[in-house]
Amino acid sequence: MKIGIGSDHNAFEMKRELFAYIEAKGFEIKDYGCFSPNEVDYPDIAFNVANGVVNQEIDRGILCCGTGIGMAMAANKIPGVRAAQVHDTYSAERAQLSNNAQIITMGSKVIGLEVAKKIVDEYLSVTFEGGNSGRKIDQIMEKEAEYSK
């Protein structure tokens, strides 16, 4: 599984630590920036990771900013993307297991690094279950297609 990761300046250090953590677990990982603690606009980073998912450059994405909110909102503007803001392991599990979220977002000002690592572990350890959840995701994607015309 290939993972993409990105952050704004608020979560630059968290992203660096998570990159090393994920890489040490044996995953192939691509860093979409930012590449310094200098201020950047988070939408550009979110769009790049989301496009990486849509273009099948990566299988899943992890985005970090101050709260995770802006990254989720931006990533979800890319048609075909399901990004979920998570700050606990249960939500991380459900984001993938029930909602087939290709991207999770977290806030470095909301959670610490150790919690973020546990969230990443949970998110990357589960696979979408389909079934009734699949039907619901299909409904969401159909509505997205309707509005994307």
UniProtKB/TrEMBL annotation:
It holds the Pfam family LacAB_rpiB. GO terms for biological process: lactose metabolic process. Its EC number is 5.3.1.6. One of its GO terms (molecular function) is ribose-5-phosphate isomerase activity. Keywords: Isomerase, Lactose metabolism. InterPro entries: RpiB, RpiB_LacA_LacB, RpiB_LacA_LacB_sf, SPI_LacAB/RpiB. Belongs to the LacAB/RpiB family. NCBIfam families: PRK05571.1, rpiB, rpiB_lacA_lacB. This is Ribose 5-phosphate isomerase B. It comes from Enterococcus avium (Streptococcus avium).
